[in-house]
């Protein structure tokens, strides 16, 4: 997605340790016009896949999921990272290792919000090693839901998450795939059609 | 907001301990059409207040903030509840006590995203005792930003958060104020104009 790549070049940074900083528009401050374009693009890609629910994980994923769900006119459900006192009833759980925070955490999702009747588009802002995504896929499998697509805003192409899920047969689309930086510090994107 | 009150009656529950369950449309599963109407209503209320930024806190607040920001055409910035390795640079912090989770936590916001030039609308899904809101107000004060309004989706009218902030002079609007339940278990709302 040209608009997103241009924005990453303009306002993003790739830091030592392969950290991609896009906090001015994607995951701390949010540019809702850009998010709206992202939602429109996910709709273009997945509109014929019979999606009836969008699944994401708190926190930044919620913004992308909501802006995309407007186009699909379907509900969003988001997995929670902490167990709330108020999250009663039966829940699906899966354990995820976070490299960002350096620890394991459980994600939870109320069973009443995901089931065999659901055709799910999973959305998230980032894909690196793919640990959080594996947690969401695990939850979908427990629910008997069909995963029709995975939409990632920015994929770290130099980490294995995206390519291993494509190899496993998922219809995974990343709107920008960052491969690294060249010697002049320019961000290198994987060429994609569209 | 009539539409919201009707939805709370239809799909919400008030539980022992004064827990209001609205997880089927507001804070676990999200009804984006309802969120869009909520955003439109906040815009109607605050459109003449010169808002140039919407501030919220992860996680559910992000959904409401994004859907509202579309109408204002301004960026959203959300305070984070956990310190990320990737959140470098100078940050504002404030300590918040959560009754839901039964512990204190720090909220953080990068200094570069909030300053004296900002006229802020603070949005959140719930207001009870108001601890999280006091953290956000504290961050705004540290930043020198002007708080032009506070928009709450559901206020627990039987808890002091909302009324104490109104008494302090804030332009605080709650789209639904739940006062409790009557003897037949019907939810009682505080009468409001509009």
UniProtKB/TrEMBL annotation, chains A, B:
5-phospho-alpha-D-ribose 1-diphosphate binds at residues 128-132. It is found in: Cytoplasm. Keywords: Cytoplasm, Glycosyltransferase, Purine salvage, Transferase. CDD domains: PRTases_typeI. Its EC number is 2.4.2.22. Xanthine binds at residues 27, 156. InterPro entries: PRTase-like, PRTase_dom, Pur/Pyrimidine_PRTase, Xanthine_PRibTrfase. Pfam families: Pribosyltran. It comes from the Bacteria. The keyword Transferase applies. GO terms for molecular function: xanthine phosphoribosyltransferase activity. Residues 33-157 form the Phosphoribosyltransferase domain. Pathway: Purine metabolism; XMP biosynthesis via salvage pathway; XMP from xanthine: step 1/1. It catalyses: XMP + diphosphate = xanthine + 5-phospho-alpha-D-ribose 1-diphosphate. Converts the preformed base xanthine, a product of nucleic acid breakdown, to xanthosine 5'-monophosphate (XMP), so it can be reused for RNA or DNA synthesis. PANTHER family: HYPOXANTHINE/GUANINE PHOSPHORIBOSYLTRANSFERASE, XANTHINE PHOSPHORIBOSYLTRANSFERASE. Homodimer. Belongs to the purine/pyrimidine phosphoribosyltransferase family. Xpt subfamily. HAMAP family: XPRTase. This is Xanthine phosphoribosyltransferase. It comes from Allofournierella massiliensis.
